[in-house]
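#struct-pred

JT: dropping the chains for the assembly here, can someone run the whole complex?
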Amino acid sequence: MPNPTNGGTCLLPVGTVTRAMHAKEVLAHGGIAAIVVRNDPAATGSGCAYAVSYACGREREVRRLLRAAGIRPYGGKRI
Amino acid sequence: MIYLDHAATSFPKPPEVVAGVCNCLQSCAGNAGRGGYRSSIQAAELLYDCRAAAAKLFGAASPEQVIFTAGATAAINQAVRGSLRPGDHVLISDLEHNAVYRPVWKLAKEGKITYTVFPTFANDPSATAEKILQGIAERIRPNTKLLVCTHASNVCSAVLPVAKIGALCRRYGIRFVVDAAQSAGHLPVDLGALSANAVCIPGHKGLCGPQGVGLLILEQNTVLEPLLQGGSGVGSLDPEMPGDPPERYEAGTLPLPAIAGLHQALKLAEKRSFAAVRLREKRLWEALAGDLRAIPGVSVAAPQFSGAVLSFWSDRIGSEPLAAALDERGFCVRAGFHCAALAHKTLGTPRGGAVRVSFGEGSRREDVRLFANALREILLEL
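RK: done, full complex below.
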């Protein structure tokens, strides 16, 4: 699940860099600025992954948009 | 030099493609999908943009369904070998390139699968799509799991009724893989319209991209066994390849400069009118076929089809010496069997094979006239 980091930014690990790019594109179409970042491996437990980073204030919309696009957080849980 | 071997690889490459490759070689730092630093992420964006362009052009559900491969052959091997289990039966057409025939033949030789070749009647001017479909339906067995066939032949200009074949496969629950090596960039190729599970595309032929990269366009619910295992940039602690495409099928570092060039090629292809391309190719084909038919002893393969590819032979000289003589006069054409033994057998070419002329973006009517003149001169000198 999203991990709040400094400055009100949230991270959502989604897995591959392609999936992260797709998530960023979906969010951009929904009017939410996001960037692709490398996720902390310790957070997922299965090694390297990529995440999208966005303003925590848009959390609910992020979840809705990604769910509609079929993008799950890394680990397979539903958003 | 007059280049008429576009079915082997297109030449020259568009300036945009050359610039795309060069710019990437000069400025792309980092391995896409591996690092987290900015230039690695930028490299990943380049990959993603190319996937998105390919998804749009070829009807993939999302950029994730666009898999980079080393070429169409690698894509076909992944789609075929990744689909089959011991005991499965496969259908292939009698026009197949060795990219399809050899992996299927090898699996059969190893006793893992069986296969049947269905007729396309490419040498029969009265053939119809219905006759091809009937031939397929008659050969379907309870264990038929895969049909793989070419969209457009690499030896003649025959185009198979792939949308109808796809619909038939869907009806029987058979996975359908299309070899679009000769059609991508020449004809509309859309995964959904073909009812295909996978479409295999080279970057360097009709799309006019660089060599070294191809595409496997995968239907959203089609899962294959990955042929390659290795680094993917995700789930590094897991010994298994990732479950999600495209990284599931892309072990190892991708050829970023080639992909940068392909991206430019896809942008150009998106603006292309396929109807205009087809018309231009047919006109060139008809002009050349008309010239060749007027030369005694020259035969044209499958003359009922006109398009980007024309193969012919002379009863006075073998195809290789004829191509060599044409080369001396500055013409680049390919002789022999074009890695397509099945197709040559179907088309009834002689023992020495055929000379293949294939048109591309830059081919002109003048090239055809000069080619026919050179051929006449060579045959007169014999």
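JT: nice. Chain A has one domain: 3-68. Strands of chain A lie at 3-4, 9-15, 34-38, 50-55.
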